[in-house]
Amino acid sequence: MGDEKRNANELIRMRKKKRRRRKISLLAALFIIVSVILCLKLSYFNIARVEVLDNKIVAKEDIIKLSGINPGKNIFYLNKKDIKNKVLSNSYISEVSIKRQLPSTVVLDIKERIPRFHMAEDKDYILLDAEGYVLDRITAVDQSSTVQVLGLKTDNISFGKRITDDQKKLREFEVFDDMISRDKTKEKITSLDISDNMDIKVCFNNITVKVGNIDDMQNKLNKAINIISQQNLTDASGYIDVSYNGVPVISVQK
Predict the structure, then answer these.
(1) Distance from C-alpha of 130 to C-alpha of 112, rounded to nearest angstrom
(2) Predicted confidence (pLDDT) at residue 26 exceeds the cutoff of 90
(3) Residue 179 to residue 190: CA distance in whole angstroms
(4) First to last CA, the chain
(5) What's the pLDDT at 155?
(6) Domains and CATH numbers, the chain
(7) pLDDT at position 14, please?
(8) Helix or strand run (H / E) with residue 131
């Protein structure tokens, strides 16, 4: 009899415990629903400010306009995927991170493509970044900040897309950009001819350096730069052939 009573009491406690849990779950769900509704409806969460970080080329105003973010819109209604696609439609922008900074600020963190090379097209110039992405078409170019590239077709180009699908040529872009970025000498590369992957030519003003393929490029160009510097050939014209192992061939006129 005592055992039966204890079992009955235990059953009652378990039922009460389940009812309490059910009430707590319902209250929690109700709280969440009310909170979501308030977040979506209260003007407290309307966008009042858009911040743009790390942009140096594309103007802040242009990025905000491109994003389509409207002040006064509820911050929780933002479609991040849509905003990202809109911002990335600018060929200078390679990445964008979109963050909600509650209650009313949206932050766009931008990563830009930097012009590193240019190609002549009629009277215009096509700007390219270190990965071969087409950035812009302009009428005048800063020869001191970008290097001219020869040997690539400019027909059917698409802004924001790579200039070529040739992986060897894309690797050449990256190799030369790395070398140009790290170069501290006064002898500066002025143009590259990559029309033939096995017969690349690098120009230092009027001196053409024949380097062959992209392999061991640092060593090849170091040889050429040392020759130009040591023999005072900066203003000379001609060529230096370092495309093979052995003593470089030099044919220049001062």
Answers:
(1) 12
(2) no
(3) 13
(4) 119
(5) 83
(6) 43-112 (3.10.20.310), 117-253 (3.40.50)
(7) 67
(8) none
